[in-house]
């Protein structure tokens, strides 16, 4: 027993501490040509310790050997995994858990078991086997809870086992490592639930992780802020704007602290990486504002459609006053939360306030995502801005100002489209063409509404404007459709991502051709025939591929009717 204790606290502890120093510090300075030099040296020391422990196996010190050896097995397993030798690492970690079987909640074993279970969870997640990963990580979570509830005393770190530390002289290092290890468990659970497409559970573990990092004061501010901003998008999708805004305000607060305290930034993080995180947080704010305006528009539209029997649209922050709120209550967020509302807006002035916040955030994002260095992201920002103008226009009661907002959309989107090479950015160019065409269609509807409001025959100027808007809408939809052609031939069938936009483009073109105003009967007939051709394309495609009909059900019904009615209209026009 004395020899065993002397070995543990002497040579064994010395080798263990050397191995840790090599892995945690020296390995950071390894040359690129020998990236695992220090880790291999650490492994050699751990193997020596393992071999020596075997020689002490006897009835008197069996438990001490078991816990020390299990800790060394876990350390070896993690070492092998870190050098991309996953299978060997898994074998050592599995051996560790076998040695601890039934004793994981012992004070001398719990931290070792937690590390081992986390590592197995990571291994299986890296293999794409998220169900297996979830099983191990759930075991780790339950072990932490059980130990905390039933034992409560700080667990022993492996070095403490070698030192022979007792409860009176315990240094608290084991508790810090134990808490940190549990935070890692929660972080990995968030990732695994995300990969298993379980967003509710993923969001829960993400927010618990973020809160623990704040409490333990163990986090990189920029990384924490970005993760919190990304979490906000889960709540945005649920229309839980109170929780989403709280996450975004927390992100901005912590990021602001990072800006004021440069030494607290992630070690070695470049200025570019930091600027990107700032831009991404700004984009999350803009997405929040757009979603709030979208939900507000939908609710106002529902009110207008049915004042007496309004059905709730989506879950929202003010739909459930009793819902438990998750808050980062150690942060002072008043400044950020007062910047923008978290309740639905109902009029133009309220909508404009949200709109202006979003535009400021988009301007912040453009400081990093420039057109010439990040073309795809810059184009996405332009589309975000376009959407904001579209949503704001809904709340604008004046038709002329509505139209100008859509014109701003067109100008911004055309400016980006003109700078992109379709050969390199085909998908983005398609999206821009489609959205530009839609904006022209919106402008046409507004112009027609102005004419109807005055209940007069359109003036020659109004006719020119209407026909010009029709032509621009059609031209941009034709550019969109031409992008699918190969050797000037359209494909017979479109993939699932593109079939609805393509068919809707034909539907819009059919509408636009029928809106053109011309006093020449023959030209009017030509436009109507073009309209029939567009409607017929949609009908024929749906009849050839019946599974598509559900994607464009409303448009399909209209097109079927128009294909029948418009020839009759042509016949009437041809009569003398």
From TrEMBL:
- Domain of life of the native organism: Eukaryota
| UniProt entry keywords in alphabetical sequence | Cytoplasm, Cytoskeleton
Pfam families the UniProt entry points to? KBP_C (PF12309)
Cite the InterPro entries for this sequence: KBP (IPR022083), TPR-like_helical_dom_sf (IPR011990)
Task: Return the Basic and acidic residues bias intervals.
Answer: 15-34
| Location of the region described as Disordered in the Swiss-Prot/TrEMBL record | 1-34
Compartments it resides in: Cytoplasm, Cytoskeleton
Spell out the family assignment given in the record's similarity comment. Belongs to the KIF-binding protein family.
Q: Which PANTHER family match?
A: KIF-BINDING PROTEIN, KIF1-BINDING PROTEIN
Write down what this protein is called.
KIF-binding protein
Q: Which organism is it from?
A: Priapulus caudatus
